[in-house]
Amino acid sequence: MASELDFLETLSSPVVAGADNRRARRFAQERGLLQTAGSDAHSLFRLGRAYVEMDAFESSKGFLQSLASGKIEGSTSPVWVHFSGIYTRARRGLRRD
């Protein structure tokens, strides 16, 4: 399956254990895959916590070229932000229609 990939997310901000991102980075490097980052934002606090700074592009080929020279920025979210999602889901479950 890896042979069919062009890139892999190696910085996922919601990840609590840094080892998961390191494992993804190592996997991508060993296979020559381009690397991306993502916030997986479900709240404003998480928005933009991980991203790739890259030049503009106009095609899928241009995207890959821009990604190859892009710079991954950001960090993982603190553990406490996950509690806000748990709280929100619990509140939804307690609501009566």
Commentary on this structure:
With 97 residues, this protein is an alpha+beta fold. Helices cover 38% and strands 20% of the residues. It is built from 3 helices and 4 strands. The strands form 2 sheets. It has a two-stranded parallel sheet. The chain has a two-stranded antiparallel sheet with strand order 3-4. It is elongated. 8% of the residues are buried.
In short:
This protein has 97 residues and is α+β, with helices and mostly antiparallel strands. It has 3 helices and 4 strands; from the N terminus they run βαββαβα.
What does the largest sheet look like?
A: 2 strands, parallel
Read across the widest sheet, the strand sequence of neighbours is 1-2
Give the overall pLDDT as a whole number. 87
- Counting helices, strands and paired strands, the structural category is alpha+beta
Radius of gyration: 16 Å
Strand content: 15-25%
List low-confidence stretches.
none
Shape: elongated
Q: What is the number of beta strands?
A: 4
What is the end-to-end distance? 44 Å
State the share of residues found in helices, binned by percent: 25-40%
* Tally of alpha and pi helices: 3
SSE string: EHEEHEH
SSE layout and pairing:
Blueprint lengths: L6 E6 L5 H14 L2 E5 L11 E4 L6 H9 L2 E4 L6 H14 L3
